[in-house]
Amino acid sequence: MSASVSRTPSGDLSRAFADADSSPGTRDARSESEIDVMSGMGGYGHHLPDAYQAKRFCCRVSLREGVRGLGASSLGGEGGDCGDRVRGCGVAGVVQRRAGRRLIRRRVLMFRPRIKFEHRPVRYGEDRIRIGGDVVGVASEIGDPEGWVWTLLNTLDGTRTVDQVVADLVHRYPDLPQEQIRQAVDDLVTAGYVYDSAAPPPERVIGTGLDRYDRGMMLLRWMDRTPGRSAWDAQLLLHQARVTVVGVGGVGAAAAWALASSGVGQVHCVDGDVVELSNLNRQVLYTEHDLGRSKVEVAVQRLRQHNCEVVVTGDHLVIDRPGQLRALAADCDVLLLAADTPGEIRSWTNRACLATGTAWVHGGYFGPQVHIGLYRPGSGPCADCGRTVRLERDAALPPLTPWAPARGQTPPHAANAVTAGMTGLLAAHAVTSLITGAPALPVNREYGLNLVTLREHTVGLDAPRSDCPTCHGLV
Ligand SMILES: [Zn+2]
Predict the structure, then answer these.
(1) Within 13 Å of residue 201, how many CA atoms lie on the same side as its CB?
(2) What phi, psi does 14 have (nearest 5°)?
(3) How far is the CA of 182 from the centre of ligand 1 (A)?
(4) HSE-up of residue 238 (Cα within 13 Å, Cβ side)
(5) How many CA atoms lie within 13 A of 95 on its CB side?
């Protein structure tokens, strides 16, 4: 009796899943012209060198290819660099985490395993199961020609121990080896579809807790493929985190609002500007009554009104030297850079976060092109590796002749609440990913979304540049 999960062959089911498979992030790679548009804004210039790889959003399980696991091998996401790979092994799952050259194995114990409601499986016909819903990056397909996997999934309702699950299955399928059933449970656990319903609810989720955050908890649980977590673990990680937002203009204001509303435990805002009339088309924390007031002062006040249960603090501070960023980075779990002046501020932040080992995110836009970058120092290329590539490429370009009427003029700041807000919310999502791993976005990369075409793209080096002036010798 086979328990293996085969690849999904082409056929009716593949066609049935075609819509899901054509969602953003799964279509064909972008064209060269799109790469150019992406790279033109704060980015990597007109033509990407070979060293850059245009990658689609990762962390996806191909529904057409199906999963390769459940009893046989990994059932985890096929994102490759999307995070820890998992492999079923043992009674209740084993997580393998590679730290340098060491392989750390951690057993995931489940007392009463239950399929996450957000991942509830659906059976197609008599021999196919989809688990994880319709979301690419979460969903997987399982072949079940003998029907016992469907029975197994229906017993994983949080009322039985693993031993009781095995006993129920053996009762229904006497020829089914117990070890095969345990292996299947392992695979589901390590794939992140199962949590332990016996785990007690958190003793303390900030203040009003469960009512305020239960919908956010469910979303994080939906995106979370980390094996063995309880329902509230990711939300609790948010509550324990301190995030510093540098710049609370259009991008930073939206990001800070999202982070405070989502329950990040401490949000620290930094800005040296005052509210101006020209800010009000996009900077959502400020009103006409705030003109002339310190942005930080108003932002802290508004964020506290949104969520009195998180600690919101602020510094009215003009960033004009690298040491300020180093001090800020040393005092937080994740730093979000939402300012673009002075011109060196991204490199300063990169260096500060590398020196302090602080994960960081930046967000910005160039007209209708919004973009973010997220970096975890010590785990790959830094932001200045990309800058090195850009400078190298620019040096190889033929001489550029600017349009004469534009000489001496400051480029216009084209933005509205949509571009600034989307950038800020994407940046907040990236911060959430760095804190919780839900979802486990690939790090040390730049992500962009073109609002003219609504197509997204990713740019990143596979390895640090050996000539990077910042991280060479450190990564
Ligand atoms: Zn570097």
Answers:
(1) 9
(2) -60, -40
(3) 45
(4) 29
(5) 16
**C-alpha span between 429 and 115 (Å, rounded):** 25
| Domain boundaries of the chain, sorted by first residue | 67-200+219-231, 234-401+412-460
Q: Is 211 exposed, middle or buried (0-12, 13-18, 19+ CB in 10 A)?
A: exposed
Distance 475 CA to ligand 1 centre (A): 8
- Cis, peptide link before residue 342, omega less than 30° from 0: yes
pLDDT value of position 246: 98
* Euclidean distance between CA atoms 285 and 257, whole angstroms: 8
Residue 255's pLDDT band (cuts 50, 70, 90)? very high
The one-letter amino acid code at 347 reads: S
Centre of ligand 1 from the C-alpha of residue 90, in Å: 40
Distance, CA 378 to ligand 1 centroid (Å)? 10
Going from the C-alpha of 135 to that of each of 19, 59, 60, 86, 349, the distances in angstroms are 11, 11, 9, 20, 34
Q: How far is the CA of 358 from the centre of ligand 1 (A)?
A: 15
Q: Do the beta carbons of residue 451 and residue 370 sit within 8 Å?
A: yes
pLDDT tens, position by position, 385-399: 998 898 889 899 998
CA 466, 472, 475: angle at the middle one, nearest 5? 105
Q: How far apart are CA 271 and CA 291, in angstroms?
A: 15
**Å from CA of 400 to ligand 1 middle:** 27
Burial of residue 470 (CB within 10 Å: 0-12, 13-18, 19+) is buried
Q: Are strands 242-246 and 334-337 parallel, antiparallel or unpaired?
A: parallel
pTM value?
0.79
The whole-number average pLDDT for the span 397-425 is 92
Domain spanning 234-401+412-460: which superfamily?
NAD(P)-binding Rossmann-like Domain (3.40.50.720)
